[in-house]
Amino acid sequence: MKHFEALNEAPGHMIRRLHQIAVAAFAREVNGHDITPVQFGLLHVLVQSPGLDQVTLAKRVALDAATSGSVISRLEAKGWIERSADRKDRRRKLLMATPQGKAMLERISESVNLAQERMLEPLSPAQRSQFMQLLIQLVRTHECAGDHAD
């Protein structure tokens, strides 16, 4: 087993730093739109898959129930999503993006894409492809093994 002498050689630390860089890039590009990366993720999934319940939505974006509940409440307060009771099970709430939520997503989609591109700018096209393949492999392997953050 390899021991990491320097903090900047430890994968966990470097992944955390890259996450900080990703959040900062997102914030720079969507500045003034009052939306976080997590809010964007939830809204994006709801536009793609309208009518999900809160538990399913949380699983799709890898959030715990408490975090997803508070983010959903904020999105609802902004008027970007709405909840309705499931006709088959009144206790279950279904979520839909509102026209305002869809418009917000459309307004910022180019900025979000630019943030994604800027994060990978230091890499060549071949390196970008390889990095994304490895990143996907790491996440999927750990998810399959039950290594969830939530």
Q: How many structural domains are formed by the residues?
A: 1
Average pLDDT confidence is 92
Low-confidence stretches: none
- SSE sequence, one letter per element: HHEHHEEHH
Cα separation of the termini: 27 Å
> How many helix segments?
6
Structural class: mainly alpha
- What is the top-level CATH class? Mainly Alpha
Q: Kindly state the number of beta strands.
A: 3
Computed Rg: 18 Å
Rough shape? Answer: globular
Q: Tell me about the biggest sheet?
A: 3 strands, antiparallel
- The name of the CATH topology is Arc Repressor Mutant, subunit A
User: Which percent bin holds the helix content?
Assistant: 55-70%
- CATH-scheme architecture: Orthogonal Bundle
Main sheet strand line-up: 1-3-2
